[in-house]
Amino acid sequence: MQPALALWLPLLPLLLVLPGQTQLVKNVPGSVDENGLCHCVVHLPNNLAPLKQLEQLQAITQELMHKYEQELSREAPTYSLLRLELEGARELVTQLTAKGGGSVAEDLLSQLQSQVANASLSLKLLADSDQRNLRAYRQEVDVLESRLIDCERERWQEASGPPLPPGSCAHGGLQRVSRPLVVQLNWRGFSHKAGAWGRDSTPNPDSSLYWVAPLSSGDRYFDYYRLYKSYDDLVLMKNYVERSMGYGDGSGNTVYENFMYFNYYGTRDIAKVNLSSNTLLLRRPLPSATYNNRFSYAGVSWKDIDFAGDEKGLWVLYATEESKGNLVVSRLNTSTLEVEKTWRTSQYKPAMSGAFMACGVLYALRPLSTRQEEIFYAFDTTTGRERRLSILLDKMLETLHGINYSPSDHKLYVYNDGYLINYDLSFLTLKHKQSKLPAGKFSWLPTVPHPVTPKKTSRP
């Protein structure tokens, strides 16, 4: 029996015998014929109000069941993510206990370890309950995770020296990536697994514009986005501006100097939108770029053309038939969208899971498992040199969609299967760069790709 029917059928006798109403159920005389069949006559009254009430009750019950199923579908992914975060927090406590010292107090670590253990036990008990207190546990885990991340960042600052000023490139390249900080689920819901988000990648600390752009449920169509004036507004989902656009393709978009840059739907065209007015200002083809999922990233569809902003300007990452699918990096003129200079790398783009730019250096990722990525490759556009890296990046869910770097706070903003995640990036100080580096951390590649200055092309 279906759940809705099971709920309202027991109420049927109550509705058929209501105070002040003619009874619809009572004993009536009958007779049995020679074949053993019972015959009786039942006279129904003209007043069918109870039956109408029954129909209304059935409709209300079905609506409540639908709402219950929707709520359950939202809570189940949150429960799974909560379990993963607790596992990560427990692992971090173990690492901090092993490496603690200096200003990281041992009694604080012991206290955090105890709290995480208690939360884990509570979560186990919650798995056998009706999940009524899930949100309360969610808040408790958020507090614990925040305290753990504060401890980790304190340890980082001790090891890496003072933080870099906003927009500074006075460092020796990427050194490591923090654990992921889960901000929240995207505003369109769990079904919108693909998308992008970030902070305006202009190297300006006074600019605090945040944007979120979940794709439609088909993981391709970029049709809506929201803008927030501050991080607090984003977390609280208030004071936002929601815009409908309707012609973007994939999750390779970014925001630079208050303009959104993206791949125009179904074409190799790149486009520019003024976020203040939601007006399409410019659209032009990207020479030789493939599109329509020809050379997208591994596990991420419709991201043939990927924009990136950093301290050095606006970039576009893509592949061509001429490059045989290898990643191509081009620097764009933000006023005209013309390609100013192009570099060809030795790495096959569909073998990467994503890439980003920081201080004119391309960093490429590849998956190691469903819970970990590796930043394995770097290409410096200033020197034209490539190098191998092995920098691990943890992830909460399997697929990293939009990946955007912000020079203002040196963070990486990642859209991870519907969730908004960010990472702190730690860079080598120039003093550390000059010293001998540990073996296996990175090595220079023998090939040195040369920059290519493109010929100007007119749109057909």
Automatic annotation (TrEMBL):
Entries under SUPFAM superfamilies matching the protein: YVTN repeat-like/Quinoprotein amine dehydrogenase
* GO terms (BP aspect): signal transduction
Keyword list (alphabetical) reads:
Coiled coil, Secreted, Signal
Name recorded for this polypeptide: Olfactomedin-4 isoform X2
- Leader sequence residues: 1-24
Record lineage:
Eukaryota, Metazoa, Chordata, Craniata, Vertebrata
Which Pfam families does this entry report, sorted A to Z?
OLF (PF02191)
What is the species of this protein?
Ursus maritimus
Q: Where in the cell is it found?
A: Secreted
Q: Which residues form a coiled coil?
A: 127-154
Domain (Olfactomedin-like) spans 168-429
Q: Name one GO cellular component term.
A: extracellular space
